[in-house]
Design a protein that fits this description.
Elements lengths: L1 E4 L6 H4 L1 E4 L9 E10 L2 H8 L16 E9 L11 E4 L14 E5 L3 E3 L6 H4 L4 H11 L8 E4 L5 H12 L3 E6 L5 H5 L5 E4 L4 H8 L4 E6 L2 H11 E9 L18 E4 L5
Parallel strand pairs: 8-9, 8-11, 9-10, 11-12, 12-13
Antiparallel strand pairs: 1-2, 3-4, 3-6, 4-5, 5-7
Helix pairs in contact: 4-5
Length: 267
């Protein structure tokens, strides 16, 4: 099969190689997917660049954890009905050496999800890390039905998923964008309100929800924590999956936040 891989970490142009290698065979409880689209996430780039200083976990890595395609082989214990089923997958290169940047990828069956025929493969390949992160960020502090959820940075992949998931769960959703050019993307997720960041943001949100917001989904924790604290309603919660600085300063009042929950796009 044709695949992309790296055997040392660094800039893509210096370490990525494309060539032929033996196609993988699914083991017990696994499926092999004939990849149509490989999804790339910030975590994939960080691992390849060694941004977190973890080094090489395996001698050779085929990158990318997310993707979509068709099941073409099944391992022992997996029903033949999965064969030729369209699926999206996640975690292909999470704690495993070979991801989806190849013609074929093998994952445990539970990491392959049937993809409706009405959903494009490109969309399916974007459901893994962004979708799971967005779902966790929305729901980790409890039900959001009837509550106000603020999604910061509404044009990003995780934020777009978070907006839709929060709306589906019955929340009133406010999202922020950095520029008017981001508005069309954010609007596609159908939030209740879209606000440009900048001057008087706190006052503008307070005009919409005078008691503050119940839950915040945050992409830039370091930059926005002071604003977030001002906006949280009593008993509110905040879930952050990213920060613009490695060691953000947290104001002392933050200890009054009921739930300060952090995650990472790099699983």
């Amino acid at each position: 099969m044709k695949a992309a891989w790296y055997e040392k970490q660094g800039p893509a142009r210096e370490v990525l190689r494309v060539g032929e290698m033996t196609a993988p065979i699914p083991g017990p409880g696994e499926v092999r997917i004939r990849m149509v689209v490989s999804g790339i996430n910030p975590g994939d780039v960080k691992k390849r660049q060694d941004s977190l200083g973890y080094g090489m976990s395996y001698p050779r890595v085929i990158p990318h954890s997310d993707g979509a395609g068709y099941v073409d082989q099944v391992g022992d214990g997996v029903a033949d009905e999965w064969l030729e089923q369209p699926v999206w997958c996640y975690g292909a290169q999470s704690y495993r050496p070979f991801g989806t940047a190849a013609e074929f990828s093998v994952v445990p069956l539970e990491q392959a999800v049937r993809l409706p025929e009405s959903v494009p493969m490109e969309q399916g390949a974007c459901l893994g890390i962004p979708g799971i992160t967005g779902h966790r960020a929305v729901h980790v502090a409890g039900p959001v039905e009837g509550r106000t959820v603020l999604v910061q940075g509404g044009a990003g992949a995780v934020s777009l998923c978070a907006i839709q998931l929060a709306r589906r769960a019955g929340a009133y959703v406010i999202t922020t964008i950095r520029s008017s050019s981001d508005e069309s993307g954010a609007r596609s997720a159908d939030p209740d309100e879209i606000l440009l960041t900048g001057e008087n943001l706190i006052e503008r949100i307070r005009e919409l929800v005078s008691e503050g917001v119940d839950h915040i989904v945050e992409v830039a924790f370091g930059a926005n924590i002071a604003t977030d604290i001002e906006l949280l309603a009593p008993g509110g919660s905040l879930a952050t999956y990213g920060s613009d600085v490695a060691f953000p300063e947290i104001p002392g009042v933050a200890f009054f936040i009921v739930a300060l929950l952090s995650g990472s796009q790099s699983e």
